[in-house]
Structures are given as C-alpha cells and as structure tokens.
Specification:
alpha/beta; 8-stranded mixed sheet; 5-stranded mixed sheet; 15 helices; 13 strands
Length: 534
C-alpha cells in the first residue's frame, strides 16, 4: 500500500510539471511542482527507492510533455523519453547522497547546484536535449522574466528550484508543528520570492517599452516572412521542386515593396539536393536568381539541403563524412541556411545543434544507425558548422543570425551570434514534422525568451506555422495559424546593443558547475576520510 502511495505521489509530481508547462495557462503551478518529489526524497528509505520513484516521475513528465516527437522519429522519441528521464535522475541522486552526508542546508543547496549543472551539460554534449530546461516554462509569460537579459533561462531554473524548496519547507513545518511563527515567516519568504522577480521584471519592462518605442519610430526597412505550408510527409520531398519554389516566390512578391530589405523562407524551403560549389549553376536555383534579379535590393535567407565533396581521401574528410559507394568519394550532408543576393553572392551556415536520433547519433550509438534509419532517422550524422555565422547584406542593414529550428532553444548558444554583430535573429524551421500538436506551439514560445535575452527582433519563418515577428520584449506579432499558406511583412528597427547575458554568457551555470564538482569531490572524499580515521 505504501509503495502504491509513493507511486501516486510521483505521478502527481509529473502531472504538476506537465500542467505548468507551455502552452498550459497554469504556469504558476511550476512553483510547487517539485514538492511531491522533495517529499519522496525526504521519506524514502534508500537510494534505490528514490531512484525508482524519481525515474517514474521524470518518465511520465517527459512523455506527457513531449510525446509529439514520436511523429518525427519513433526511435528518436523512445530514446529521448528513456535516456532523458534517466539522466534527469542524476542530480536528484547526487542531492540525496549529499544531503545525507552534510545535512539539510547543504543538501538542498546541492540540489540547486546539481540541477543547474545538469542543465548546462545537457545544453552542450552530444546527447543534448534541453527542451525541458526549467527556465523555459515561463515562455508564455515573458512579462515575468524580463530579467532574462541578465541570467538567461538558468535564472528561471534557479527561481523555480528555490521556490519549490521553500514550499516544501512550509509543508514540512505545517505537518510537524502547525501554523507557528516560523511557518508564517517561511510562507512570507515564499510569497516574496515569487513576487519580487515579477515586480523587478515589470520595472525592466517599462524601461524597455520606451526604448522599443523610440527605435520603432526610426525604423525604415521591412522584412518579409513566408509560410508556404508544404506538407513534409506527402509533398515536401516527393512533390515538384519547381512548384514549391514558385509558391515561395509568389508569396514573397505579394509583400515585397520598395522598403523591403530581407525575405525569409523556412528551413529546407528549397528541397533540391545540391553540391555547394554548384548552387549558382544548379537548374533548380534559376528561379531563385531570377527572383533576386527582379528585386535587386532584397536579400534572401532560406533553408536548403546542401552537400560538400571532400574527394577520395578519408584523412582529409571530417568524421561526419559519408562514403559515396559509386564514386568512392567522401561527402557531408548539411541542414543549411543560405543567404543569397542579386549579385549571386552566397553565404552559408550549417546547422550545428543537431537533433539526437534524427539528425545525429553520438559515436557510441553508431551501432544503432540502421535501426534509426528504418524509422525515419539517419544512419550517421549530418555535418555541422564549428562556429556561429552572421549573414551581412550588401547594405549592411539587417545583419541576420541564421538560427535553424532546434537551435532556437539554446539560450547561451544564440548569444554568440549577437557578439559577432547580428542585429536581428532569424529562425527558420519546419515544425510540420510534429503535426498539429503542442510541439510547434512550445517551439515558438521558447523563441520569445531568446528575444528577451538578446533584446533583438526575431523574424520566424515556419513551413506550416507558426510564422511571426517577435519584438525584443517577447511579444508575438502577427502569428500565422497552423496549416495556413501566408506571407507577412513588418517594418522593424535594428539594435546593436548587447545585454549583460550576451556579453557574459551563462555565468550562473558555469559557476554552478564549478561548485558541483567541489561538492561531488567532498561527498566522495569525506566518507573515505572518515573510514581512514577509524
């Protein structure tokens, strides 16, 4: 019976996290969503039990929140559910052992440190899947987190962990002693900890609104975004390439005027597979160059499928290169953002943050390549860029950060574009793989946080929706509905300033990682030292 009760408690924690996640209207539940798991940790007899219950909660939360990735890749989804849930248990187990070694004060502090370290690692290793970074939960309430310009999403994760630990302290005090003076003091601290960041955010928001208003008054050039609405399952890679490009051109020309400087098409908008050294002469690209010749002052940013040939020498090819069996040459396949101008100049950026199981497999999982390929994934990995690139146009006006799909959920990663001179963020994506599910809505809402962190306008082109503009305050402007063909235009300003978060990056996570290493060493060393003394 007790085991059944513990499982129900873990389930309640999962449901609270799911109910608080975008695009749910009850985000406020995130401030108590971890309380059930904190209670289980405090009342479980051994680490094996807490591990089992933690894994149960994490697994249900992962499935309930991101079940839609199954549509993109069944094995990728299974891997994400199982592996991500397992990895999420690590900071909780480390917290369990640290708390029993050093007591409650250091113990609960270690939970914050270990979780922030986990999120930092999860943003930067080969199995990266930071979709459930706690700070993302406020993406539907940008008015609460305008201070992300200083902390990024890590500040939100810290906020959530602190409020949950204090909420559990309130519950524990009530259960053991009732409504004492300490209970009311702790309750007041909890309320203040929730409201103070929101009030601070309001102060920042008032200041930023004035800046945004002044900038809009001086804006002269506009950006056109195209949403072609091409079904990735039945049309994108099986239909006529010519007709798809023609649709993109027609939709663009409906909006272009004398003040248009930039046109944005979505990820893989041009589905023709092309060698990068042949883009200018490739038959399928003739309509693109013709389009730019008709509009010589317009730059085009679009997604393409591109390939690079390295020749027969394996030593000169990168590790991601594949062997073409007929010609016996090595090549890379890329998910590419391309920047074209009327003089046929070309700038390219290769997507660097690849989706595990769909676009990349870590080397230690290469043996699963054939299985992933059979279910819609890939047998190897796509090539990737080693650095962020900024697309600079002929007139030096809209200096675009070419952010491809999944990359837009990486807060610290995006800051490098701005440090390199980007004054507008362009997100190109094809969320149609997820069908009409919460996935594409969550993805768009996360982009609002990138706008706040960098204080840059975002032009977001999504194949099937949601295409939109997002202002530096995180407000979504003119969002286009799902499964709709559309093109939109807006005159927007450029801003060359750099926020604290852009200049310094994710300081909180880096500091937490250093402390986590020290805590881990102490947690291991102290028992050994005590045994030696005895």
């Amino acid at each position: 019976m007790k085991r059944f009760s513990s499982s129900l408690t873990a389930l309640s924690g999962s449901l609270l996290l799911w109910a608080a996640w975008p695009t749910s209207p009850v985000t406020i539940l995130i401030f108590v969503a971890w309380v059930p798991l904190l209670w289980l940790e405090d009342n479980s007899g051994n680490w094996k039990k807490i591990f089992g219950l933690t894994y149960l909660q994490m697994l249900i939360w992962n499935i309930a929140t991101t079940w839609w990735i199954w549509y993109a890749s069944p094995p990728g989804a299974m891997g994400a559910f199982i592996a991500n849930s397992l990895i999420m248990c690590v900071p909780w187990l480390l917290f369990y052992f640290t708390k029993r070694q050093f007591g409650q004060w250091i113990g609960y502090g270690s939970l914050i440190i270990f979780w922030l370290t986990f999120e930092y690692i999860h943003h930067n290793w080969d199995l990266s899947w930071p979709w459930l970074t706690l700070g993302n939960s406020f993406s539907t309430h940008p008015e609460w987190v305008q201070w992300y310009q200083y902390t990024g999403t890590t500040g939100g994760s810290l906020w959530i962990l602190l409020t949950n630990i204090i909420a559990y302290a309130i519950l524990s005090q009530y259960r053991t002693a009732g409504k004492t003076k300490t209970y009311y003091i702790t309750l007041a601290i909890w309320i203040a900890l929730i409201t103070a960041p929101i009030l601070f955010s309001r102060i920042i928001l008032n200041k930023e609104r004035k800046i945004a208003s002044e900038e809009m008054a001086s804006a002269k050039k506009n950006v056109v975004i195209v949403q072609p609405n091409i079904d990735p399952y039945t049309e994108k890679f099986t239909g006529s390439i010519e007709s798809q490009i023609q649709k993109l051109v027609v939709l663009s020309e409906k909006q272009i005027d004398k003040n248009t400087s930039l046109v944005v098409w979505p990820e893989t908008a041009i589905p023709a597979q092309v060698w990068e050294d042949q883009i200018k002469t490739n038959f399928f690209y003739y309509p693109v160059w013709s389009f730019l010749h008709r509009h010589p002052f317009v730059s085009l940013l679009t997604g393409i499928d591109s390939y690079k040939n390295y020749g027969p020498d394996k030593e000169k090819a990168p590790k991601t290169a594949r062997l073409e069996p007929t010609s016996q040459t090595y090549y890379d396949a890329f998910n590419t953002a391309a920047f074209f101008e009327e003089d046929t100049s070309i700038q390219l950026y290769h997507k660097a943050k690849l989706v595990p199981g769909v676009e990349t497999l870590p080397s230690f999982l290469n043996f699963m390549g054939k299985w992933f390929e059979d279910f819609g994934g890939i047998s190897g990995t796509l090539g990737r860029d080693s650095e962020r690139k900024v697309f600079v146009p002929w007139d030096n006006h809209f200096k675009a950060a070419p952010i491809i799909c999944y990359e837009s959920i990486y807060s610290d990663y995006i800051t490098e574009y701005v440090r390199k001179g980007a004054n507008i963020l362009t997100i190109i994506t094809n969320d149609g793989w997820w069908r009409n599910t919460p996935g594409y809505k969550q993805h768009m809402s996360y982009a609002r946080l990138r706008a706040i962190e960098t204080r840059k306008w975002i032009a977001r082109s999504a194949n099937t929706g949601i295409s939109c503009f997002i202002d530096p305050l995180g407000n979504v402007i003119n969002p286009q509905p799902w499964d709709t063909e559309a093109s939109i235009k807006m005159t927007i300003p450029v801003d060359s300033r750099q926020t604290f978060f852009v200049r310094h990056g994710d300081i909180l996570s880096r500091a937490a990682t250093v402390v986590a290493i020290l805590l881990l060493l102490l947690t291991i060393a102290v028992p050994i030292f005590n045994r030696i003394r005895k």
